[in-house]
Amino acid sequence: MGKHDHHLHDSESLHDAARNRLTDKGEQWTEMRAAVFKALAKFDRPASAYDIAEAVSKAEGRRIAANSVYRILDLFVSSNLAMRVESANAYVANQHPGCLHDCIFLICDNCGVTTHLDDDKLSGGVRQAAADAGFEASRPVIEVRGKCGDCS
Amino acid sequence: MGKHDHHLHDSESLHDAARNRLTDKGEQWTEMRAAVFKALAKFDRPASAYDIAEAVSKAEGRRIAANSVYRILDLFVSSNLAMRVESANAYVANQHPGCLHDCIFLICDNCGVTTHLDDDKLSGGVRQAAADAGFEASRPVIEVRGKCGDCS
DNA sequence: TGCCTCATGTGATATTGTAACTTCGTGCAT
DNA sequence: ATGCACGAAGTTACAATATCACATGAGGCA
After folding, report:
1. Separation between Cα atoms, residue B147 and residue B49, nearest integer Å
2. Is B129 close to A119, i.e. CB distance below 8 A?
3. What one-character DSSP code corresponds to residue A96?
4. What is the pLDDT of residues A62-84, one digit of tens each?
5. Which of A143, A144, A147 should one mutate to test binding to chain B, selecting the residue with the greatest count of B CBs within 10 A?
6. Does at least one atom of strand C sit less than 7 Å from the CB of B87?
7. How far is CA A85 from CA B22, B45, B76, B139, in A?
8. A4 has a pLDDT exceeding 50
9. With bands split at pLDDT 50, 70 and 90, how would you rate the model's confidence at A120?
10. How close does chain A come to B138, measured CA to CA in Å?
C-alpha cells in the first residue's frame, strides 16, 4: 500500500467528525459554526467567504455578514477543519479532519473543481529544500493550476 | 554541481535583460513599463500592485493608477519578467528572465523578505503527481511560509 | 489626411479582508 | 436573584486587492 489510508466519511459523519474535532479542542460547536461548515462542505470547489455567507444567509433566511464567516473560517483553518486555497482566495472543507497533512491542491482553471492530494514525500521534499536554504518552514503552500481530467 | 547555473545581473543589466526579453517578444518597452519594472526590482520583498503604484507615482511626480500597474504586471508575468506570489497577493521581479522555472518561494512571515529556489526536481515531482492524478498542470504554485534565517 | 492599433489615463465598481465596538447568552460567584 | 466575566455573533466602517468600461493620445501606415 505505501500510501496513507484515510477512512471516508459520508456527509453525515463528516459533520460529526468536524464537531468532535472542535469540541475536543475545547471549542464550541454552535449552530452558526455548523451552518458554515455545512455550507462549505456542499461546495465541490473552493468557496470564498462571501460565497459561504450568501449560502448560509439563504439557508437561514436572514443576513449573515461575511465578517462572521471569516471568523469561523479562521477557526476552522486553525483547527484543520478547512483549508485555504491561496491561489483562489477561497476555502475548502477538509474531508478528513484529524489527519494532518501539507496538502496539495489541483485546481481546474476551466471548471473550478478542486481535488487534493496528500503526498508527504513531496511536501517533505519542499520542507527539506526550505530547510536546506536556512528557512524554517511553518506552512508549505502547494497548489497546481491547470485542467482536470474532465475538462481536458 | 548538479544545480542550475544562473549568471547574475547587476541592476543595470537586469533592466536590459528585461527590456530585451520584452522587445524580443514583439512588445514595447515603454517609459511606463521601465518605471514599473524599476520600482518592482527595488523591493526586496513581494510588492503589491498598490505598493508599486505608489512607488512609481512618487518617482514620476504624478499619480499612477493601480489599474495601469496591474496591466503591466500581467504583461510582465506572462513574459516571465515577474512572478506573482499567490499567498501574498503580491509580485516579485524575476532575477533571471530568460530562464524558465517553476520557482519555489520562501516567504518570511516575520520580516517579509522573500527568496526563491529553482528546484526542477521538486517542481517536476509536483507536476508528475498531478499528472498521475489525471490532471494537466499548467502552473504549479509552490510557496513556503515560515521564518527566514535572519529572523529565527 | 484619415484610419488603425496599442499603451495609458480615468473613474467606477467589485471582491476580499480587518478592525472596533456592541449585543446577547451562558455560567459562575457573590 | 443579582451582578460579572467571557465567548459568540452582529454591525458598521473601512482598507486592500482586483477588474471593467470607456476616453485620450501617440505612432504607423494606407
Report:
1. 24
2. yes
3. S
4. 999 999 999 999 999 999 999 99
5. A144
6. no
7. 32, 22, 24, 14
8. no
9. very high
10. 5
Instruction: Give the N- to C-terminal CA distance of chain B in Å, as an integer.
Output: 29
Q: Are B121 and A121 in contact (CB under 8 A)?
A: no
- Rounded CA-CA distance A27/B123 in Å is 38
Q: Give the Å distances, CA to CA, from A79 to A11, A15, A25, A29, A72.
A: 19, 14, 8, 12, 10
The full length of chain B comes to 152
> Would you call B44 helix, strand, or coil by DSSP?
coil
pLDDT tens for residues B83-105? 999 999 999 999 988 888 999 99
The backbone torsions φ and ψ at residue A69, rounded to the nearest 5 degrees and listed phi first, read: -65, -40
If one counts every other C-beta atom within 10 angstroms of the C-beta of residue A21, the result is 18
Q: Protein footprint on strand D: which nucleotides are under 7 Å from a CB? A: 7-13, 16-21
